[in-house]
């Protein structure tokens, strides 16, 4: 406290000179290098104050703090643009998914600029870099035996002539009876759902009754990673950086045993799956979207791996 009072009394003249901004911001040997991301806001709506407070504002505050400390700081973010929520909103507005994303990406960028959120780069996930990096990660997983193929029963709407992705179907939750549960999760009880488990399912597009139809998909073989993941979690939990809530949720998943997780969808709006027999499918958004942090950085600088594959700095 005495030191803080002394520095405060000396005034701004005693502070070190501010860093001269560099473009692009890259890690520097011997300095503290800080990469900051905030949760990618979904692109199918106009952001409101709650979105900003819950999403980008805390990261912006921390980025400003880091720069005041003269740490070498890069702050990136961008709009999350793939997934069925984009498709459903595009249908409602009579636009293509690309047109919808272009419109709302510009709206998001304007809103954050008005609030003076201090991004070094605000990008988006629908880019060639996203496709390249996501497909590369997929090929690495495939080569290392962490993917498997299996038949998945899906709801198909014969009237629309399409398989119904999670958000294109609604019905009654099989766990709590909530009448408007989505095909991936119940918003009332929070449980994950497979769409075929819904009672009284309805196609959101035509309100017809879909039928269960088998189709081939690719799964992330999570059980293969369970032992290594548990060992890693024990080490990181011991460091004390996880909240009690985060530890509880993670323990619950491990207690029940990890299951293979489907990472492909019968859609057209998404990153294409680069594998024969599955080229008419795209990656599930929750496989694809987290890779957006990497691809947005890659759109900022072609030396993006110096941030993402450089733990020594």
UniProtKB/TrEMBL annotation:
Q: Tell me which InterPro entries the record gives.
A: aa-tRNA-synth_I_CS, Met-tRNA_ligase_1, Met-tRNA_synth, Methionyl/Leucyl_tRNA_Synth, MetRS_core, MetRS_Zn, Rossmann-like_a/b/a_fold
Organism encoding this protein: Panurus biarmicus
Keyword Ligase attributed: yes
Protein name per the record? Methionine--tRNA ligase, cytoplasmic
- Quote the cellular component terms of the Gene Ontology held in the record: aminoacyl-tRNA synthetase multienzyme complex; cytosol
Q: Which CDD domains match?
A: MetRS_core (cd00814)
Q: What lineage does UniProt assign to this protein's organism?
A: Eukaryota, Metazoa, Chordata, Craniata, Vertebrata
* Protein family (similarity comment): Belongs to the class-I aminoacyl-tRNA synthetase family.
Reactions it catalyzes: tRNA(Met) + L-methionine + ATP = L-methionyl-tRNA(Met) + AMP + diphosphate
User: One of this protein's GO BP terms?
Assistant: methionyl-tRNA aminoacylation
Q: What GO molecular function annotations does the UniProt record carry, in alphabetical order?
A: ATP binding; methionine-tRNA ligase activity
Q: Which keywords are on file for this protein? A: Aminoacyl-tRNA synthetase, ATP-binding, Ligase, Nucleotide-binding, Protein biosynthesis
Keyword Cell membrane (UniProt): no
What domain of life does the native source organism fall in? Eukaryota
Q: List the signal peptide residues.
A: none
Query: What residue stretches are annotated with the Methionyl/Leucyl tRNA synthetase domain?
Result: 34-311
